[in-house]
Amino acid sequence: MPKKWITIAVLCGAVLLTGCLKKEQAAKELVTDGRMADPAVTERDEDLLVGDLGVERIVLPQLLRSLEQGRAQTATLLDPHGFPLIHRFPDPTVKPLRGGYAENVIETAKSYLHTPYEYGSDRTNPLTFDCSDFTRWVYLDALGMDLPWDSRSQAAYVRAFSKRIYTDFSKARRGDLLFFTRYLGNKPEDYQGLTEAEKPISHMGIYLGNGKLIHCASKETGGVRIDQIRWKHLQYRFLFGGGIL
To answer: I want to staple 72 with a disulfide (CB 3.0 to 4.6 A). Which of 23, 52, 84, 191 is the partner?
Structure first.
């Protein structure tokens, strides 16, 4: 067989293999169910209304990072709780999956699907999560990156160190951290005309691509789950996102 045809055959095989891998990946990233878009669920879901505002304040004192040791009097970058923001990087011994660390993050995130939700969950184990404990644990487990402990602090981290921050959801990439305000309703008008003070960060998750988010939203919606963002309250609640890899 001429070399030209061998090359063409190899390229065609690679294309088919890539297509199969993408289909397999998409099958593993199906939306969990419709509960996040069901008003009968969302309108009575207290966890969605509260989010993780101030969650670091309620963590048991023996598990909380010491204020005396953790605060940096001379640090120029502090999170909302006064802890120093330290730029973290992937453990160099971790091998990127399929050419990128974002895939390590996503594979790890999917391994925790359906893990139960608990407000103010124990940051030292992955038996339960709230939204920011989930994202922190995923990055720690996947890449050894120890992020701050709640959504506002992780938002401060992204603002401090990300080279790619956006408020246009269409710019999100796989593995990005996305931040949302608290739930106020299922309609876009429920979020119109609000001041910045009326849109606090209270929820976050990891972007999967194709308009999907993996996150830990509430007890009512079953803990760690996958949801479409577009044309739902998640899109109307979206504040900003960024990549940290």
So the answer is: 84
